[in-house]
């Protein structure tokens, strides 16, 4: 089984956020169950951006940045490469959600194409997707 993880949830595994403990517990439980993780190929750039911002905001000491990036990398998240079909799905999701950008909807497209769950820390995204019929989208903040 796969689960698609959002970049915000992934980043919370290595920087202290209010939901970090919950995210870590969930991911460790899933790993013990043999769950594999996936995300659109852009996830690692989004996470490295979040880590850089965390350093600037003093959430993460600069000398821990490389270790945090290494820890994220060791989760072994499968990069799902971009394709015409995924871009079409992402554009469709962006339209359905009323979004001008397709970053978030890329995760929805990947989860939909893999027919699996998508987990995020973005409650508004999860609620919007659920209202659009994506019962397989979950916010870690609601569980």
Count the DSSP helices: 7
Mean pLDDT: 96
Q: Numbering strands along the chain, what is their spatial order in the largest sheet? A: 3-2-1-4-5
Proportion of strand residues: 5-15%
The second-level CATH architecture is 3-Layer(aba) Sandwich
Largest sheet: 5 strands, parallel
Give the fraction of residues assigned to helices: 40-55%
* Class by SSE composition: alpha/beta
Q: Mind telling me the CATH class?
A: Alpha Beta
Classify the fold: give the CATH topology: Rossmann fold
| Domain module count | 1
Low-confidence stretches: none
Q: Give the CATH superfamily.
A: 5'-nuclease
Shape, principal axes of CA atoms? globular
Could you give the distance between the termini?
A: 20 Å
| Total beta-strand segments | 5
Query: What is the ordering of alpha helices and beta strands?
Result: EHHEHHEHHEHE
Radius of gyration over alpha carbons?
Answer: 15 Å
How does this model look, in words?
The chain is α/β, with parallel strands linked by helices and 143 residues long. The protein has one domain (2-142): Rossmann fold, CATH 3.40.50. It has 7 helices and 5 strands, in the order βααβααβααβαβ. The chain has a 5-stranded parallel beta sheet. Helix 3 (43-56) packs antiparallel against helix 4 and helix 5 (84-97) packs across helix 6. The longest helix has 14 residues, at 43-56. 36% of the residues are buried.
Provide the descriptors you would attach to this structure in a database record:
Rossmann fold; 143 residues; 7 helices; globular; five-stranded parallel beta sheet; alpha/beta; 5 strands
